[in-house]
Each structure stands twice: as C-alpha cells, then as structure tokens.
Design brief:
Blueprint lengths: L4 E4 L9 H7 L6 E6 L11 H10 L4 E6 L3 H10 L4 E5 L6 H10 L3 E6 L17 E5 L14 H15 L4 E5 L7 H6 L4 E4 L1 H4 L4 H13 L7
Parallel strand pairs: 1-8, 2-3, 3-4, 4-5, 5-6, 6-7, 7-8
Helix pairs in contact: 3-4
Bound molecules: D-xylitol-5-phosphate (DX5) and zinc ion (ZN).
Length: about 220
C-alpha cells in the first residue's frame, strides 16, 4: 500500500514552546520546516540554528522548505544542520542540478518547489533528478491562507509529465491543506500533505493528523 505522509508545518507552532509542540505532533510522518528570508517572501522565520534545535526535538525526518532568494549559496548550511528532505524554489535557484547533486552527495532527499504562478512545464528539466516535487497551493509567506483551486490542474499536468518521463517523485502540496481536501489531493497524485494551521490550531493535534492521513488514504487507488 502506498504511503500518505502528513507533514505539520512548525511555522504555525508556538516558538516559545517548540519542544512541546514538536512532541504534540510526533505521530506525523515528517516535520515541515519553512525557511523565509524576507526577500523571496515578505515574512522572516528561522534558519539553520533553529533547525539544529528542531532536530534535537524530534525523531521524525525534517522536511526543509527554503523560501529564500539564494538557495545556491545557503543550501549547504541546511544540510549541515541536518535537513532530511531539502526543497528549494525553482524560481530562486540559478544552478538547479548542482544543488540537487549537493543534496544527494549528503545522502538526503532533494526537492524542487514551484509557486502557484509558475507553470509545471518549468519542471521538465528537473523531474528526472528530484526526489520530491513541492507544488505550492498558496503564494508562500504565511500560514493560514486559502487553498488555490487551480492547483488541481497543475497536479494533473505534473502526473502526465511524470508518466512521460517514467519517474515517481514524491508529490507534496503546501498551503491551505486540511482533512477536507486531502482525499482530492491524493487522488491527484499527492503523497505528502503539508498542514500548518489544520494541525496546530486543532484542539487534538494527534487526531487532526490522523484525520488528514485517513482522508488522504481514501484517495489512494483512485485517479483524478
Ligand atoms: C507557506 C508555508 C507553509 C505554511 C502552511 O508559505 O510554506 O508551509 O506553513 O500553512 P497552512 O497549512 O496554514 O496553509
Ligand atoms: Zn512550506
């Protein structure tokens, strides 16, 4: 049976209680770690030092999402800090294959992300090399935004591209994900669901993670 991963985004955590908040989502599959530099996106979050602390606070793989203008220059520091999955933005990188090679040399999974306004076609030269493709379903920068419905069309196009290339990267979606759209997203090929507010604002976070995962699993074996 194929896996549906739930990746709570700690952008929505309480930074004063990061250790306890990591503990509260230990039934998840990945921890999603959003790096924002105030240039690629209007917001600023955290960097490699807090990543080291996060690694000490969880046994789960940490899925690092770099929303920075200079991934070519800074990706290595996130590998050194322990990123298990390292995703950079197509729009920000200059030498995409060089970054991917660097991530692979460290034995980690390499991801490439596209913004809602970037066509799937941009990934044609990269889909053979990436382990993860992260399709943004909001314009990145903040938690709690509304899911952009046009994402489904892009996911369909991505599935066609992956079939043509005969590759099977993990398809991840980030922004406005909840138990309400998890089934439809998995149907559209998604296998990693990032959820910030849907997990951290829930009364019972473990229950929220299970609900998203189980809703997602309903979409396995069905095609959009
Ligand atoms: C958005 C970030 C997301 C964000 C998701 O820029 O990349 O990971 O935390 O938050 P929700 O799930 O609340 O949309
Ligand atoms: Zn993210």
């Amino acid at each position: 049976m194929e896996q549906v991963r739930v990746a709570p985004s700690i952008l929505s955590a309480d930074f004063l209680r990061l250790g306890a908040d990591l503990e509260s989502v230990r039934t998840a599959d990945w921890i999603h770690y959003d790096v924002m530099d105030g240039h690629f996106v209007p917001n600023v979050s955290f960097g490699p030092d807090i990543l080291k602390a996060t690694k000490r606070g969880t046994d789960l793989p940490v899925d690092v999402h770099l929303m920075v203008t200079n991934p070519d220059e800074c990706f290595q520091s996130y590998l050194d800090a322990g990123a298990d999955v390292l995703t950079f933005h197509f729009e920000a990188a200059t030498h995409h294959h060089r970054i991917i090679d660097g991530i692979h040399k460290a034995g980690r999974l390499a991801g490439v992300s596209i913004n809602p306004g970037t066509p799937v076609q941009a990934l044609d030269a990269l889909v053979d090399y990436a382990d993860v493709i992260l399709v943004m379903s909001v314009n990145p920068g903040f938690g709690g935004q509304k899911f952009i419905e046009g994402t489904y069309r892009k996911l369909q196009q991505l599935q066609v591209m992956c079939q043509e290339h005969d590759v099977h990267p993990i398809i991840e979606v980030d922004g406005g994900v909840s138990a309400t759209n998890a089934e439809a997203l998995v149907r559209a090929g998604v296998r990693a669901l990032v959820a910030g507010s849907a997990v951290f604002k829930a009364e019972d976070r473990a229950a929220a993670i299970t609900q998203i995962r189980e809703a997602g699993k309903l979409g396995l074996g069905k095609r959009a």
